[in-house]
């Protein structure tokens, strides 16, 4: 009797194929997707680590390099996770390749997770290399390494979902640039990457708590150096809640095929 193939394998084959396609996509242009952001982060590390790292302090007991490095790592994770899903899905829409993908037996959850896992891989790879380079400039205490890894994964997952949503709503390449230049980057810079919000005067210190990226940055830094402007529970709770909301939003849009079939 000839053994029957496992139907579960065939059910997940489209997901594996799409995931492999997305990983190969950013690997083929690794100079742009991996090397360029690493060089940019290295320049930040040189400026704030080699030149100001031991001459400036914004947090008692830590050099400026120790303070700023966690923010630069999470910034690399955020930017590259968003860029991967937003550029890939938008190009599929723009070139019409999304039509071929929609007729394949890929379920909406598989569709989302294939794009998400590839984006997380790219974001975490960039963040890991930035971390390795940072060893040249400062030694980090790593108080809670598992919590730091969890926050990095939440950040990459969150912005992978945001990238999918942005790609669906974007009308052209300029719209994607608006999301990056006028939303993500300002929120990163104002979220405490280069300074603790506790040193800001009122009302700016209070307004900073309305910035959703503050909780990602502060939670990641808190897990590494052991000091933060807010508690772990609040930082992780707010970040995980936003990630869940964006995932539900992306799932709803993709499940309906909103602006994907036109």
UniProtKB/TrEMBL annotation:
Principal place of residence: membrane
Cellular compartments per GO CC: ATP-binding cassette (ABC) transporter complex
Topology term for the membrane: Multi-pass membrane protein
Compartments in which it is found: Cell membrane; Membrane
Transmembrane segments: 34-52, 64-83, 119-140, 146-170, 182-204, 232-254
Pfam families: ABC2_membrane (PF01061)
This protein's record includes keyword Membrane: yes
ABC transmembrane type-2 domain boundaries: 28-257
Record keywords, A-Z: Cell membrane, Membrane, Transmembrane, Transmembrane helix, Transport
GO molecular function list: ABC-type transporter activity
Family: Belongs to the ABC-2 integral membrane protein family.
Protein name: Transport permease protein
Organism: Pelovirga terrestris
């Amino acid at each position: 009797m000839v053994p029957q193939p496992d139907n579960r394998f065939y059910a997940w084959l489209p997901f594996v194929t799409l995931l492999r396609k997305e990983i190969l996509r950013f690997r083929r242009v690794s100079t742009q997707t991996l090397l360029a952001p690493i060089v940019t982060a290295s320049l930040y590390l040189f400026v704030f680590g080699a030149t100001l790292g031991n001459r400036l302090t914004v947090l008692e007991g830590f050099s400026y390099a120790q303070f700023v490095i966690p923010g630069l790592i999470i910034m690399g994770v955020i930017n590259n996770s968003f860029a991967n899903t937003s550029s890939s899905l938008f190009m599929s829409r723009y070139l019409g390749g999304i039509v071929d993908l929609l007729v394949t037996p890929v379920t909406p959850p598989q569709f989302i997770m294939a794009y998400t896992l590839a984006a997380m891989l790219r974001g975490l790879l960039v963040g890991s290399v930035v971390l390795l380079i940072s060893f040249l400039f400062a030694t980090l205490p790593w108080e809670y390494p598992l919590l730091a890894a969890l926050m990095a994964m939440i950040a990459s997952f969150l912005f992978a979902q945001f990238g999918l949503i942005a790609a669906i709503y974007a009308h052209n390449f300029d719209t994607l640039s608006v999301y990056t230049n006028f939303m993500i980057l300002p929120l990163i810079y104002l979220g405490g990457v280069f300074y603790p919000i506790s040193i800001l005067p009122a009302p700016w210190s209070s307004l900073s708590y309305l910035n959703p990226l503050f909780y990602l940055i502060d939670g990641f830094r808190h897990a590494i150096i052991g000091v933060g402007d807010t508690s772990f529970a609040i930082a992780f709770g707010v970040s995980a809640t936003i990630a869940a909301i964006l995932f539900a939003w992306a799932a709803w849009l993709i499940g309906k095929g909103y602006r994907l079939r036109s």
